[in-house]
């Protein structure tokens, strides 16, 4: 308690130093690095395991469903057994080890097996199942850590800002890196792309997990994890009670799951269609993402910091969602009425192979719309982690039980269940328009069907998902005033338990 007291303020608020918040964001970064690796899994399955396009896309769907199924089991395990050793560090260690070992076997060993699609498919599937168990543990550690790290209403948005900045920058850098690998090896389906990509992902993620482990250590203790000193009676049926009675969790699931479906459809094959075929130069994908992400992050920081910190996370999601609807709709119209092959940046060539001579109208317009669209979408995405932490506190005040593993995995289970259809949906549409045996690549000729498919999955679904956000947030009740009541209730419960 003496060590814990330096992190405690009045009115039941506890906090963390800024460097620990930044350091713990490493686990969020590691989760996204490994998930980024799987975004290209269809090309590996199609090119080196021997699966057809629809089957390769279905594989991602099946693994995503498996990932969702493991969530409640892991959440129950963590809440039942994780107090003494530290819930977050336990999850982090198990998840990091499983992800490193199994991703190595998946992407560095499968293609070395005898050239038989059945053997390779069985091998890849077994270690994919273990990979996603590790992903679940690491993902749960992020959510449990956000709860015990701080409940200060001014710090929780900052936690999300830091995490989102690091994740978005890493994604942009990775896109630049992957684009460079595609140029280096000649195509997306080259073996060297996957070997190099795995190596940098595994090293970077392992370093991030280690930093996060050190950062969370003094807060990952019972004083910041539980209300009661007594062992909690947590049963599996608590899952159904939480989902039935926790309205804010229900609304967050509706909001975030529809967003996740939209962003999950932006798989590598769709990026290849938009930048490699419609725009005409896939190399622009990396440079474009880096340019737009940096400015989008500034917008997100101002949005979630100013709106989320002062007006609440609910208001931040509402404003961000309307921004996504407006700016992505305008981007679709820009592609329809102007020439996307004129997009260019300094140091690149456009879709016609012409070197940069100045900014075209399409480049300027798309840049502005992309920055605004990405920035408002980041506001919505970055609000999710602190909202889950708020919902954990609300559930503790409502039921008297501290169940961060359960609350987080209820959200992630439904989220993954819905978003799991994304790769299959894309694969079915590709098969429908004539790509049943081989995914579109950078050398595939342009067609109108690819144009419609690319724009719908890259921009259109985001519009639909954001409209669902607007509806769901209307019924989300955790306003800043409500969260003040929640913290006061939890503090009264702690005092009563300690006879203070």
Provide keyphrases for this structure:
Growth Hormone, Chain: A; 500 residues; 18 helices; mainly alpha
Explain this structure to me?
- The chain is mostly helical.
- The chain has a single domain (20-222, 240-493), classed as MFS general substrate transporter like domains (Growth Hormone, Chain: A, Up-down Bundle), CATH 1.20.1250.20.
- It is 75% helix and 0% strand.
- It is built from 18 helices and no strands.
- It has helices spanning 2-5, 18-38, 41-49, 53-81, 87-108, 117-149, 155-185, 191-216, 238-245, 247-264, 268-278, 283-310, 313-337, 361-399, 404-419, 421-432, 448-473, 480-497.
- Helix 2 runs parallel beside helix 7 (155-185) and helix 14 (361-399) packs antiparallel against helix 15.
- The mean pLDDT is 83.
Quick synopsis:
This protein has 500 residues and is mostly helical.
What's the structural domain tally? 1
Kindly identify the CATH topology.
Answer: Growth Hormone, Chain: A
The CATH class label is Mainly Alpha
Count all strands and give the number.
0
Q: Structural class from helices and strands?
A: mainly alpha
Shape designation: globular
Sequence of secondary-structure elements? HHHHHHHHHHHHHHHHHH
Runs in which pLDDT lies below 50 for 5 or more consecutive residues are none
Provide the gyration radius in Å.
23 Å
Number of helices: 18
Q: Give the full name of the CATH homologous superfamily.
A: MFS general substrate transporter like domains
CATH architecture: Up-down Bundle
Mean pLDDT: 83
Q: What is the beta-strand fraction?
A: under 5%
Helix content: over 70%
Biggest beta sheet summary: none
Amino-to-carboxy terminus distance: 15 Å
